[in-house]
Amino acid sequence: MVCLALAACGTVPKRVAPAGSASAMDAGVPVYVVRRGWHVDVGMALTDLQPPLQMVAAAFPGSRYLLFGFGDRRYLVRGGNLLAALWPGPGIILATSLRTPQLGDAFGDENVIQLRLSTQQMRTLQGFIWATLLSHDATPLAPGPYPGSAYYEAVQRYSAVHTCNTWAAEALESGELPVESVGVEFAWQLWHQVQRLQGRAIEIPPDPAITKPR
């Protein structure tokens, strides 16, 4: 328990671990970036969900993972014209639960990237997702397109310049990951950024709750 031992000193240096390395696997909380064709989802294990986002997980008992993605409400729920999604309109969040032991079992290992966050970074990222939901009673707007999924109304609006991939980049950015969301419209633009993080050292700030001087 190195962090607890160093807490008496009042400060703890940031932990730095290359994403995907053995040391990275031992440090921090995993967040999963999943490429699903033309859009990217952000997810986490249900055991790592924090309040209030745990309220959403309650709708998916028995699941191992919960993924979140953003989209155009008119197209996804109302069956509107795909071209209409280019114009600003109401957004929607798709929550997808999975029971597979590994996300790669469902999407292929080449489409799943795992990164590590501190507890505080994960709290901030999950707070961003929660703040995107229009209703904070965790009530779905409609069932999702397949079993284990549901749509939730979103605060943010969808457009050609604020797409599902822009939102996913913003979510990762909110968790203090070195990701740029401005100009991200397509999946490949975000995926290339996340791929580069696999071979880089990522700083994991200490958890303030552990390192706060006594």
Topology:
Elements: H1 2-7, E1 15-18, H2 22-25, E2 29-36, E3 39-45, H3 54-57, E4 65-72, H4 73-76, E5 89-98, H5 104-107, E6 112-117, H6 119-132, E7 142-143, E8 149-158, H7 164-174, H8 187-197, E9 201-204, H9 208-211
Antiparallel strand pairs: 1-9, 2-3, 2-6, 3-4, 4-5, 5-8, 7-8
Helix pairs in contact: 6-7
Short description:
The protein is of the alpha+beta class and 214 residues long. The protein contains nine helices and nine strands. α6 (119-132) packs antiparallel against α7 (164-174).
Characterise the protein shown here.
The protein is 29% helix and 28% strand. By secondary structure, the protein is α+β, with helices and mostly antiparallel strands. The protein has one domain (14-207). The strands form 2 sheets. A 7-stranded antiparallel β-sheet has the order 6-2-3-4-5-8-7. Strands 1-9 form a two-stranded antiparallel ribbon. 33% of the residues are buried. The model is unreliable at 1-26 and 209-214 (pLDDT under 50).
